[in-house]
Structures are given as structure tokens and as C-alpha cells.
Inverse folding.
């Protein structure tokens, strides 16, 4: 089946009616808090951050499980 595309110059095909965020300009903000605000807590980066967090939790959960029940994998 042939793909149909939008006419040239029609703009994005998604609804971007979300309100724009105001930039925060605090002269007393530290570099760490600016990093946390822009990279960790930003709503547009939340899905990626949750994906990274899930991977880290699964990895350390596997390490903890092997340290706890790893001896059950060895034949007696």
C-alpha cells in the first residue's frame, strides 16, 4: 500500500498545544541544581530517564538475586 504524506509546508502532524515553559533565570542557582532541573526532572526527558532507571534496578536486582540464591544453580 502506498504511503500518503502531508503536503509540503503543512507543519507538524502532531498537536503541540502544550503551553511553553518559561525559562528560569536564577543567578543563585548552582550548576548541580541546574543540571537536575534541565536533565533529570524535565518532563520531556522523563521517559528516557525512567528507562535508564529501570535498567539499573533490573541489573542490581539480578546481582542481588545471584548473591542470595546463586548457590542453588550449582548441582549438588
Amino acid at each position: 500500500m502506498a504511503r500518503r504524506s502531508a503536503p509540503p509546508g503543512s507543519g507538524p502532524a502532531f498537536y503541540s498545544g502544550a503551553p511553553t515553559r518559561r525559562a528560569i533565570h536564577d543567578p543563585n542557582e548552582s550548576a548541580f541544581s541546574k543540571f537536575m532541573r534541565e536533565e533529570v526532572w524535565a518532563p520531556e526527558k522523563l521517559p528516557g530517564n525512567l528507562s535508564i532507571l529501570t535498567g539499573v534496578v533490573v541489573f542490581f536486582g539480578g546481582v542481588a538475586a545471584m548473591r542470595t540464591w546463586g548457590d542453588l544453580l550449582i548441582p549438588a
Residues 23 and 33 are 14 Å apart (CA to CA). The chain has a mean pLDDT of 84. Residues 31-73 form one domain.
